[in-house]
Design goal:
four-stranded antiparallel beta sheet; mainly beta; single chain
Length: 174
């Protein structure tokens, strides 16, 4: 949408995956989407064309639960096994950073210039070493009473969380 969501136009419907799960735009305007089977696609022209970049989990069948990008355009994905993956070359190659970040099935992932964050229910986990180790930084977001739907960062210090009760929360002390 180019008018703040008032109307929408199909830009492209030819990605050869029938199950796209997550999408993110990096800091140069590139768009990435990931399918339920781990395929990562890149568009460098606002979605007009797409290129298959790679497979974040090497053909495993775990669905991506969250996707984020930091200021250096490193891509992060957390999968259904709670594994965290990173790509520093536009999704061509992926490295598993950890085999279990410490929470449960993730609801979302966000990244900024110094940290990666995972939302699980009412908990927020943080990694300051590109997803290798994780610390629980908030175990009960108040007055948050529903499971989280997603977490994202609008700039380096402002976080938003969306819950199932149709509420949006903001934190600027992350």
């Amino acid at each position: 949408s180019s008018n703040l969501g008032a109307s929408w136009v199909i830009v492209n419907d030819t990605i050869s995956s029938n199950s796209l799960q997550k999408a993110i735009v990096d800091h140069t305007g590139n768009i990435y989407v990931v399918s339920s089977n781990g395929k990562v696609y890149l568009s460098t022209n606002k979605g007009a064309t797409w290129t298959l970049q790679g497979d974040f989990n090497g053909g495993a069948s775990q669905t991506p639960q969250g996707m984020g990008v930091n200021q250096t355009n490193a891509l992060y994905i957390v999968d259904g096994d709670d594994d965290v993956w990173v790509s520093v070359n536009s999704g061509l190659n992926w490295t598993r950073q950890t085999t279990n970040y410490g929470g449960g099935l993730a609801d979302g992932l966000a990244a900024n210039n110094h940290s990666v964050y995972i939302l699980h229910n009412k908990e927020v986990y943080r990694s300051i070493d590109s997803g290798k180790t994780w610390v629980l930084i908030n175990s009960s977001i108040s007055p948050y009473s529903q499971d989280g739907l997603d977490i994202f960062i609008s700039d380096s210090d402002t976080f938003y969380l969306v819950d199932a009760a149709e509420r949006v929360f903001m934190s600027s002390d992350g």
